[in-house]
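Q: 4-hydroxybenzoate decarboxylase subunit C family protein, please. Structure only.
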Amino acid sequence: MILASLLLGEKLKIQKNTNVSPLPVVADADFLIQGVIPPKIRKPEGPFGDHYGYYALKHDYPIVQVKRIYHRKNAIWPATVVGRPPQEDHWIAEYLQDLLSPLFPVVMPAVKKVWAYEESGVHSLAAAVVKERYQGEAFTGALRILGEGQLSLTKVLLITDQDVDLKNFRETFITVLERMNPITDLHIFANISQDTLDYTGPAVNQGSKAIFLGSGKKKNDLKTQFKGKLSNSSFKNPKIPYPGTLVVSGPKYKLKDGVPAKLLKEKFIQDFLFVFLVDDSEDTIRSDHDFIWSVFTRFEPAGDIYANTKLIRNHPAFYPPIVVDCRVKTWYPPLTEADSKTIRKVDDRFGRLIDSL
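A: Structure for 4-hydroxybenzoate decarboxylase subunit C family protein:
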């Protein structure tokens, strides 16, 4: 209700009418659905297309036992379409972030600004500018974000103390990579909850999170050229979308296929900070938008990050290069895609509708 008031720019009009509902209702609502949510009763919902760009699977959810439906004259039923970003909800999500952004420093004093990338389905990737007034404050700010409401669903969080434009993913990502020491600044939290509709984890609602922390002065001279040849013929078409990163096409995923470990041993990737193993490197690097979606919706930090590691003071230290397996896994649901016949039909009808206005 607070959100609706912010969108309207005024206080919601609330009406009490016991003939309609025992609870107060929003007077300006187009529809009013009156009913009961019974405890402990669940029924299956799905599969359906979702904002991640994949189909959601069938799950049991609470139900509403509808008793009455009211509507105003000439009521409009609000609806949106979802699928691979950007869809209509992309612009809604970005607008809401702009609307709420002034509140972040108020509720989280160590955090200057936060941005969740809708291109990743919102929850897969976010970035933040935080304060680093003392050693480790940036990490404290990161934990504060991961403990805040819907932001707690964030799977990968980029953190920096530099005043970057978070909406500019390229600038933000490079800024973090330039300042990140993976040995101390890559933090993975395993065996925790994960967004219900993110199926990259071992089971529904189960997964992990990662913090990529890059603060202070530049530490890394990021490589911008790939010289040499990949020795394993199953690895193809290496591309550099951002300094210090390499995207490589690999074979179709098979369970426990050992492919990421083989890529980790390749001679000519050793000077890169991150190497992303994907199904199609050309498609992945087409734009920042494509990179975000193709990479961050297709890996789970605890299950898909590979590196030479060492336990230092009970902290897993990751030594670059760090290989991230972003191939489509066998258990992922199918992509949300419209068939060409439907696309032509919608385009034709939409065009005639616009022409008639």
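A: Brief note, in case it's useful. The two ends are 34 Å apart (CA to CA).
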